[in-house]
Amino acid sequence: MGSLRVTKFDQPKSFKFSKENMAKIADILKKYPSNQKQSAVMPLLDLAQRQHGGWIPEAAMEEIGRVLDMPRLKVFEVATFYTMYNLSPVGEYLLQFCTTTPCWLCGSGDIVKAAEEHLGAKIGETTKDGKFTLVEVECLGACVNAPMVQVNDDYYEDLTPELMVTLLKDLKAGKKTSFGSQTGRKGSCAQDGPTTLEAQAKKAKVAMAENEKKSGKKG
Ligand code: FES
């Protein structure tokens, strides 16, 4: 993930998991042997991030270390290694623009430009109203529907600059948005419409019959 340009922000002095999240932690811990509690560090970092408005304060890492009986530094090492953990405040909507080759070839540069111009903020920045944070990321595994952007937990795909701006306007207005393909493509089916195995098999048979005819065999 591209680094966030963060000015000054306050670290809360303490952090406690909510009652609901403590119950989730108890369930998570059941998945690991009791002497391997540290294995739960990633899901707990995720819980802390969700509870704390999209970023993980140092106090939360300290609390995770306490809950998992592991040094705070080890928690910090994991949190700083994986880019999905935000260690400084982010906007209400975290926009993760994929600019890796397939998305780039399909116009991700124009998508980023349209978003930056519309929001008046660059990659690595948060808009003044605190609504949007823009970051650049590597491939998010939705190349077939490139170009795409991840907004919080959702993927928006088959974007054009115009569709990107519409999406931003809808998010800001609190309107319900539809994630997935923005052009109505179903899943990741071909741009020209769905194909079926049956259709492919028929095509193959025709080709086979023609080949057999050519080679003098019975068609
Ligand atoms: S290159 Fe953008 S999702 Fe893979």
Question: Which terms would index this structure?
Answer:
219 residues, alpha/beta, Arc Repressor Mutant, subunit A, Glutaredoxin, 5-stranded mixed sheet, 8 helices, binds FE2/S2 (inorganic) cluster
Characterize the structure shown:
The protein is an alpha/beta fold and 219 residues long. The chain has 3 domains: 19-81, Orthogonal Bundle (Arc Repressor Mutant, subunit A); 93-181, 3-Layer(aba) Sandwich (Glutaredoxin), CATH 3.40.30; 194-219, no CATH class. The chain has helices spanning 19-29, 41-51, 58-68, 72-81, 101-105, 108-119, 161-172, 197-214; strands spanning 93-98, 132-137, 149-151, 154-157, 180-181. It has a 5-stranded mixed beta sheet, with helices on one face. The longest helix is centred in the last third of the chain and has 18 residues, at 197-214. The termini are far apart. The structure holds FE2/S2 (inorganic) cluster. The site of FE2/S2 (inorganic) cluster has 11 residues, from helix 5.
